[in-house]
Design a protein that fits this description.
The structure holds three protein chains of three kinds. By secondary structure, chain A is of the alpha/beta class. Chain A is built from 18 helices and 23 strands. In chain A, strands 15, 18, 19, 20, 21, 22 and 23 form a seven-stranded mixed sheet that branches. A six-stranded mixed sheet of chain A has the order 6-7-8-3-9-10, sandwiched between helices. Chain A has a four-stranded antiparallel sheet with strand order 2-1-4-5, covered by helices on one side. The radius of gyration of chain B is 21 Å and the shape is globular. The two termini of chain B are about 40 Å apart. In chain B, about 55% of the residues are buried. Chain C starts with a helix and ends in a 17-residue tail after the last helix. The relative contact order of chain C is 0.20. Classes of the chains: A alpha/beta, B mainly alpha, C mainly alpha. The interface between A and C is medium-sized, with 21 and 17 residues.
């Protein structure tokens, strides 16, 4: 944007320089003296686990939040973006992890909102649509400008986000976990687009926790851990294990060796099951057939939004079945709701910890009750509060749940501890069938390790376990058989050892056997 | 409370009233003798009964504003039994109570049906049902239920003595509905803390997604809380006309149904809290009347004080919650 | 027959005007994602202040402006509660209704029986003397014209301007709007105040133009009916106008039916608007309609910078 890239002495001035950025939340130091320099046209990777402070840092740069201390230099000049509008006017653009699109509005309305108040973009709608379309075409990112965002797939929504950023011809593009919603094929194409943009002189800050992607795309990589920069280097030179150590700060703990499945009876049986509401978020769900045996972990891979929620709700009974059959431990449960299924020995660790699986404002005892009504209200009216309190104590002890006190509300627990409690809740009564959704998402390594160990133990005790996760490492570590969900359809299941990662990747994107007949 | 009194005093001062005397007339004079105290209990009974029902709705996240209408329908239907039904002798009173309770439930059932079947906002339907109930009452006392010997005043005849709830003592106007309300406070506590439906209601109110995950039926719980609320309000209405009022008049409700909303909130939806809040709000009624007698100022000062109480409660509530949330909420970076 | 239609049209327009003003105010407020159930309190405050100011100053215009100011100030109290303190919007709205009703009764105390000179009709030259519809449409008091002017302005702003788009975005998803750099809280504040001003104007219309007499029940549930009308109108400006006049017609129907000799108790006929409101809710609340309406997705949910 007309700012010289070089100083009079020929030294390249960084496009962006951060000096000692610090940001505190109550009880947490999210950013602790972070330094960062990005050159013009550079693609910089910013690597960090969930909770390492990456998102906070980006929000400070982009003016969504203000740092408590530190300086931001933009093309050599100190700035203090007080709002995203200011940042945009300076030439920054950002794609948020959770998109900032207004779903009920059209694509073009969202573009207009984004460009609102920026000089030179106060154009009539028709002109704006024209420039949007020609940009989309030049980058080979087709989107219908008149569609409602509600009706777009996650991949298409991302295109809208990126395209409206690029309309501004920014000097810096910040991307927060941009590939989370993309299929591997879409990722490859997206990276191509990013390289084109960078070649044009735009710096890119690429935030991720996926090592291979950062190594594939970025020139340099900076690693953030617990709010501090712990490492920095040339992305293509550093090995994945080197990066991994910087990332988590310790060697990955070793899991106990997997045991062979013990039981043989089918405990969870889905037979051509379809839900009453089959179309979900623009997704057409196919009939599901699936069997999980006692002492077995079946893993379902897939990018979020391909029907995981639907599959979970069909099994839990939250979505009523329309056709087909579902049985738990040999009992037909097709027509029953969740409470009856829990009573029959089904337990679920849901995907959303605090807005479904647990109620943050309620006590641990009340949260334990949520899926165990049959255990404490056998006569259907009065509750056995004493037994509840005993069981809460037992879960806290045996699952090492760190809590201020036994009567604390669920909201007072950290993510990892709450997840341990929820797993403890599910395993309390020795369930016949256990459904785990993303069981270690956003959980620190130590807790994740404990959770994995418990899932394996439950398997040894004969539970039939269905593991729905995006985390392929977790899947290969735990599962005995693996399948994939793609676009509302479930692939055949294959023993883990006979399924190479490449082929699974193909399934997750609708290739390979997924292209043929569904469901073995 | 302090803030509400301060703001109320400012308003009184603005109206050129002696603040000290007025406050005394409002809050102290009404309860300075035993008769005053019994009147306080009398006023707080319908408030408490209605608030008990409402609080269960609010815990479930169902915004029932319709206690007023349910109260009126209970009074109207129960009173009609006393006035027009064939003589039932000793069965008169039980029949009245049953009819009053069922009428309150029936009125609430309309809102429950519209909500569960059509997704219509219960806030708006219950308000409309309030207006309709008051219209029905007005029509009834102008027409079919008017006292034929009453010089064309829009009032019914006085109820026969066997159609009145037994008095508790000779000297006060209290009836058995007051101890019943106290009993209901205990029952409510037990219901909320120790029963499955009480727990399910709390879950539904806290997070409907969690309720659906647990498999609790929103429809069933909506019906349950609205019918329960209607039953309590209907009984409250009946026990007013079959108690201190003793006949049907166009103004039997006095806005009790609306004030009960404030009682529920100020009592933090907690049984004991609501017991105290019902006394406090009953005091504003007595005080308002007292002030009107002493200074001639409109008794709508009662409403202002009630509104201010709720207003400041809401404001302070949030401040307290902020402090708690700030101290132990884990923050995702 | 023509005379009858003329009266019908004329009185419908008049009776629909307060509803139209309230509905427009609610539309603005709710499009920004704020649920203000205190409309009844705003209207009656506007009415009481307008009446008292008219009676003391002798000018209906001073009265009208006072009514608007009263509505705006009362709405400001609500805004402080729900925006700054993040109070529950439903409860705050109820508190507003109760305080408004009480304060208005105190302000209007002693005003019963006082008479003021109401707003005069202002026939529009030429148009007012058109045959058939001239009198019915173009010989109203100034506030009726003002309400129609506001209707057009608000429609333009809401559906065809940047400001309207911003408002809608904030009502659907304040978090995303904030990330875009839109000023969520200031815009919500303006929306609440605009809603208060319009409700206050509606109250003023009732007290100085529609029935220039003071009574504590002057608002007669119009605030609540208007809240239901917005649902009925699926948050669309012109459907809201249609609804306002339809309900205006409903509220004068008892006069009409008595006019044609039907002898039904006025107490029963008075229920008509309320029954009709329930029917309207029944027909238009259905979940099937949800996706096609403009219903703000974040309606009633508090938001602040920490979210």
């Amino acid at each position: 944007m007309g700012v010289p890239d070089e100083s009079p002495h020929g030294v390249r001035i960084p496009r962006l320089e951060l000096i000692g950025i610090t940001r505190r939340y109550p009880g947490v130091l999210a950013n602790d003296g972070v330094d960062l320099r990005i050159a013009p046209g550079e693609i910089r990777g910013l690597l960090g686990e969930n909770g390492s402070g990456k998102s906070t840092l980006m929000r400070c740069i982009y003016g969504v939040e203000q740092p408590d201390a530190g300086e931001i230099l933009w093309n050599g000049r100190q700035i203090r973006p007080m709002s995203p509008r200011v940042a945009r006017a300076l030439g920054m653009a950002m794609v948020f992890q959770h998109f900032s699109l207004i779903e009920p509005l059209s694509v073009m309305d969202n573009v207009r909102l984004y460009l609102d108040g920026i000089d030179g973009f106060d154009r009539p709608p028709a002109v704006m649509r024209e420039s949007f379309l020609s940009l989309a075409e030049s980058l080979d990112l087709p989107v219908d400008p008149l569609a409602r965002v509600d009706d777009l797939s996650p991949g298409e929504r991302q295109r809208v986000e990126v395209l409206r950023c690029l309309l501004l011809k920014p000097d810096l593009l910040i991307l927060d976990e941009p590939t989370a919603a993309l299929t591997p094929g879409e990722v490859a194409q997206f990276f191509k687009v990013l390289r084109t943009i960078a070649d044009g002189g735009c710096s890119i800050l690429f935030i991720s926790h996926k090592l291979p992607e950062v190594r594939a795309l970025c020139d340099q990589v900076t690693v953030l851990r617990r709010g501090k920069v712990t490492g920095h280097g040339i992305a293509s030179v550093m090995s994945e294990s080197e990066l991994a150590v910087l990332l988590v700060g310790e060697e990955t703990p070793v899991l106990p060796p997997a045991r062979t499945p013990v039981g043989s009876g089918v405990l969870l049986d889905l037979d051509q099951l379809t839900g009453a509401t089959n179309a979900l978020d623009g997704l057409q769900m196919q009939p599901v057939s699936l069997q999980v045996r006692s002492g077995e972990i079946v893993g379902i891979a897939g990018i979020s939004g391909n029907g995981q929620e639907h599959l979970n709700n069909l099994i839990s009974g939250e979505s009523a079945a329309r056709t087909g059959r579902l049985s738990v431990a040999g009992r037909d449960m097709t027509r029953y709701g969740p409470a009856r299924r829990y009573a029959a020995g089904l337990q679920i660790v849901p995907a959303e910890r605090t807005h479904q699986g647990a109620i943050p404002a309620m006590s641990l005892a009340d949260n334990l009750l949520l899926t165990n009504v049959h255990r404490y209200a056998s006569r259907g009216l009065t509750l056995d509060r004493e037994q509840l309190a005993r069981d809460v104590r037992e879960i806290i002890d045996s699952f090492d749940v760190r809590t201020p006190h036994q009567h604390a509300s669920a909201g007072a627990l950290s993510g990892g501890n709450l997840q341990k409690f929820l797993l403890g809740r599910a395993l309390l009564d020795q369930p016949r069938v256990l459904i785990c959704n993303h069981p270690t998402w956003g959980v620190d390594l130590r807790a994740a390790h404990a959770i994995h160990r418990r899932i394996l133990e439950a398997r040894s005790q004969g539970a039939a376990i269905l593991l729905i996760t995006e985390d392929l490492d977790e899947l290969y570590l735990l599962a005995d058989r693996i399948g994939a969900l793609y676009s509302g359809r479930i692939s055949p299941l294959r023993p883990t050892r006979e399924l190479p990662l490449q082929e699974l990747g193909l399934w997750m994107t609708g290739g390979g056997e997924m292209a043929g007949k569904a469901v073995a | 409370m302090t803030l509400a009194i301060a703001a109320g005093s400012a308003i009184l001062a603005a109206l050129d009233l002696p603040v000290g005397t007025s406050l005394h007339a409002l809050f102290i004079a009404p309860v300075s003798d035993s008769y005053g105290l019994s009147e306080l209990a009398l006023k707080s009974t319908p408030l408490l009964l209605c608030a008990i029902g409402l609080s269960v709705c609010y815990r479930a996240g169902i915004w029932n504003i319709g206690a007023e209408g349910q109260f009126v329908m209970g009074a109207l239907a129960g009173g009609a039994i006393a006035l027009v039904a064939p003589p039932l002798g000793v069965m008169t009173l039980p029949a009245m109570v049953t009819t009053g309770v069922i009428a309150g439930m029936g009125w609430a059932a309309i809102a429950a049906w519209l909500r569960t079947r059509y997704g219509a906002s219960e806030i708006l339907t219950t308000i409309m049902l309030n207006y309709i109930a008051v219209s029905l009452l007005t029509w009834a006392v102008h027409g079919p239920l008017r006292d034929p010997g009453g010089y064309s005043f829009p009032e019914s005849a006085l109820f026969e003595s066997h159609a009145l709830l037994p008095a508790l003592t000779e000297s006060s106007r209290l009836t058995v509905s007051t101890p019943f309300a106290l009993l209901a406070v205990g029952a409510l506590w037990w219901f909320l803390a120790r029963t499955l439906p009480g727990y399910q209601i709390a879950v539904l109110g806290a997070d409907s997604k969690a309720a659906s995950f647990a498999g609790f039926s929103t429809t069933r719980l909506t019906w349950l809380v609205l019918l329960g609320s209607g039953a309590f309000a209907g009984f409250a209405g009946l026990s007013e006309v079959a108690g201190p009022v003793g006949q049907l008049t166009p103004h039997i409700a006095f806005g009790y149904g609306y004030t009960a909303i404030i009682v529920a909130f100020i009592g933090r939806l907690h049984p004991l809290g609501m017991l105290l809040a019902s006394l406090l709000l009953a005091l504003t009624y007595l005080g308002g009347e007292n002030l009107q007698i002493n200074t001639g100022i409109s008794k709508s000062v009662t409403l202002v004080f009630q509104g201010l109480l709720l207003f400041f409660l809401l404001g302070c509530d949030v401040l307290i919650r902020y402090r708690v949330a700030g101290s132990n909420q884990p923050v995702a970076a | 027959m023509v005379e009858m239609l003329d009266v019908l049209l004329f009185t419908t327009l008049r009776a629909g005007t307060p509803l139209l003003l309230i509905v427009l105010g609610i539309l603005i407020t709710e499009r920004a994602g704020v649920l203000n159930l205190g409309q009844e309190g705003l209207v009656i405050m506007g009415a009481a202040c307008a009446f008292v100011a008219t009676s003391t100053s002798g000018s209906v215009w001073i009265g009208t402006l006072t009514g608007v100011a009263a509505g705006t100030l009362t709405a400001l109290a609500f805004a402080i509660l729900v925006l700054a303190l993040r109070a529950n919007q439903v409860a705050a709205g109820l508190a507003l209704t109760i305080i408004g009703t009480g304060l208005a009764a105190m302000i209007g105390d002693g005003m019963s029986g006082v008479s003021i000179v109401g707003m005069e009709a202002l026939p529009i030259p030429f148009l007012g003397s058109l045959p058939l519809v001239g009198h019915a449409l173009f010989s109203h008091d100034a506030l009726v014209y003002v309400s129609l002017l506001l209707l057009v302005v608000i429609w333009r702003v809401m559906d065809h301007s940047r400001l309207g788009l911003t408002l809608t975005a904030i009502g659907h998803n304040p978090g995303a709007a904030h990330q875009l750099g839109l000023a969520v809280l200031p815009i919500r504040l303006m929306a609440i105040l605009a809603g208060g001003a319009l409700a206050g104007l509606a109250g003023a219309y009732l007290a100085v133009a529609y029935t220039p007499l003071w009574s504590e029940g002057i608002s007669a549930g119009r605030g609540w009916i208007a809240l239901a009308l917005v649902v009925f109108a699926s948050w669309r400006v012109f459907r809201a106008m249609f609804g306002a006049y339809l309900f205006g017609l409903m509220s004068i129907l008892n006069l009409l039916l008595q006019g044609v000799g039907l002898n039904i108790s006025p107490n029963l006929l008075g229920m008509l608007p309320y029954v009709a409101t329930i029917l309207a809710l029944l027909l238009f609340s259905n979940a099937r309609h949800r996706n096609t309406t403009m219903a703000p997705r974040a309606l009633g949910q508090p938001w602040s910078h920490g979210d």
